[in-house]
Design a protein that fits this description.
mainly beta; 231 residues; 22-stranded mixed β-sheet; elongated; 0% helix
């Protein structure tokens, strides 16, 4: 059985969101500029107003969607892979890894899966219990882990990173506020050249200023080194 397109009942019905629910199946979504409707392989699609819903127990869910489509995905242990440019993405998983190429915004919640986001054009929010979180490019960032490393690069908005026992590395693309905290890990924060930052952290006074400032950097580590620098 090949790909199955969603049959839209009337021309006035526009699908704006895809919702996928599965227990252990991997979910692979590809956004394609040439696709005009939701297309699935081997799984049925139900239409509820403007939401296309897929509830599957198969080994894998493969979808093709138009670019800019909003996605809501829930899985227990299945891996989630989203390729191409999509809209807002919300993923809830227990132990599956999550990889996202390009989304308008990202909200991922996982217990032990690794999360990799290449680009979130707006805010990226991730809550992970024990998986590494790596974001290459985003607007604002809000990331919390219990025992996984946090790596944020090219952050174009305010950044918040909280980790109980892991390293935190943040590279800011602009002069925006940063709040980073870890109980037992190193914190490294890199700011753009010329940034006048008001730094609130022990053991990191390399770019501290008083009076006029562009942003506030707050960093706390219980037993690890804190380094704030400009490049």
């Amino acid at each position: 059985v090949g790909y199955r397109p969603l049959m839209v009942p009337t021309s006035e019905t526009a699908v704006s969101m895809v919702r996928v629910t599965t227990a252990s199946a991997a979910v692979h979504v590809t956004a394609d500029a040439d696709v005009r409707t939701v297309v699935a392989e081997r799984v049925p699609i139900a239409l509820d107003q403007s939401t296309a819903t897929i509830d599957s127990t198969s080994t894998r869910v493969d979808l093709r969607v138009p670019e800019g489509m909003d996605l809501v995905i829930g899985t227990t242990s299945g891996r989630v892979r989203i390729a191409g440019a999509v809209g807002s993405v919300a993923v809830v998983t227990t132990s599956g890894n999550v990889q996202i190429d390009d989304a308008a915004s990202v909200d991922v919640r996982t217990k032990s899966g690794r999360v990799v986001v290449a680009k979130a054009r707006d805010e990226a929010r991730v809550n992970s219990r024990s998986g590494k979180v790596e974001i290459d490019h985003c607007g604002a960032a809000d990331v919390t882990t219990t025992s996984g490393r946090i790596v944020l690069r090219n952050v174009e908005g305010a950044a918040r990173a909280h980790c109980a026992s892991g390293k935190v590395d943040i590279t800011m693309a602009g002069a925006h506020d940063v709040a980073a905290e870890t109980v037992s890990g190193r914190i490294s924060i890199s700011l753009p050249e010329g940034t006048r930052a008001l730094i609130d952290t022990p053991s990191a006074g390399s770019v501290a200023v008083s009076g006029e400032h562009d942003c506030v950097v707050t960093a706390r580590s219980g037993s690890g080194k804190v380094d704030v620098s400009t490049r």
